[in-house]
Amino acid sequence: MTILLIEDEPLVAKTLARLVRQLEPEAHLEGPLESVQMAMEWFGRHRATDLPEPDLILSDIQLSDGVSFDIYREINPKCPIIFTTAYDEYAIRAFKLNSIDYLLKPVEPDELKAAFDKYHRWRQGGTSADFRDQLRDLLADVSAPSKKYKHRFMAHYLRNIVPVLEENVAYFCRDELIYLYTMDGQKLVTDYGSLDELEELTDPGVFIRANRQCLVNLNAIAGYQSHYSGKLIVTLRKPATTELTISKEKAAVFREWFEQG
Known about the structure:
The protein is of the alpha/beta class. The protein has 2 domains: 2-142, Response regulator (Rossmann fold, 3-Layer(aba) Sandwich); 153-260, CATH 2.40.50.1020. Helices cover 34% and strands 30% of the residues. The strands form 5 sheets. The chain has a 5-stranded parallel beta sheet with strand order 2-1-3-6-7, sandwiched between helices. A hairpin with a 4-residue loop joins strand 13 (207-209) and strand 14 (214-217). The two termini are 40 Å apart. The mean pLDDT is 84.
C-alpha cells in the first residue's frame, strides 16, 4: 500500500510519518508535499509517466498556498482521503455524512488507527466509484454558502434570561455548568449542555477552544507567553484575571489562530 502525505507543517508531518510507520509498517510512504502546487505537480508527473497513484491520501486541509480541496477538484483522485485539520470550520458535518474520515489536530494514534481500520474495511467491499461519488458530494458541500454562527448568547441574570452579544463575551468555562464570563467581569450561568455544543455554534475566527474547560474570545486575549514545558499561558484583558493554559500539542494551532485573527 502506498500512502501519500500532504502536510505543510514540518513537525506535524514528522509526527504523522512516524505514526504511519508504526501503524502500517508495510506501507510505502510518499511525501510530505507542502502545498497545493507541489501536490498538483506530483500528480501531474505520475499521470504523465503512468506511475500508479497512491492507495490512500493523508491530507491536511489548510496548506501554505490554499486549501487541499482545490487539489481534489482538479485531479479527481480514485483513492480514499483521510483529512486532517486544526480547525472545525471546513464542513465537518459533511465528512461524517459522506463517510470520509477526518482527524482534528493534534492527531492521536488511536484515532489514526481507527481511520486506517476504516480504510481496510472499505478496501474489502468498496469501489473507487463509490468513493468518487462521496468526494464529489463533499466538495459540493464545502463550496456551499458558509455556515452561520451565533452572535448572541442567552444567559441567566438575576431572574431574567438576557442576551449577551458576541463582542461582550470574554469566554465560556465549564465547571459542572457552562458559565459565560463577560468582558466587564460578570459571571453568568447558561443553559448550554457542553463546550462541544458551543464550539459548533461559535465562529472559529472569533472563538477558540483553549482547553477542555474554556472557549475564549479572541478580543478578550491580552497576550500570551511560552512556558518552558512548551505550553502557552494566555492572559486575558482586565477586569478578567484568569490565565488560561494552552497545551503543548495545541500551542502551534493557537499561535496561528491568534496571529491570523
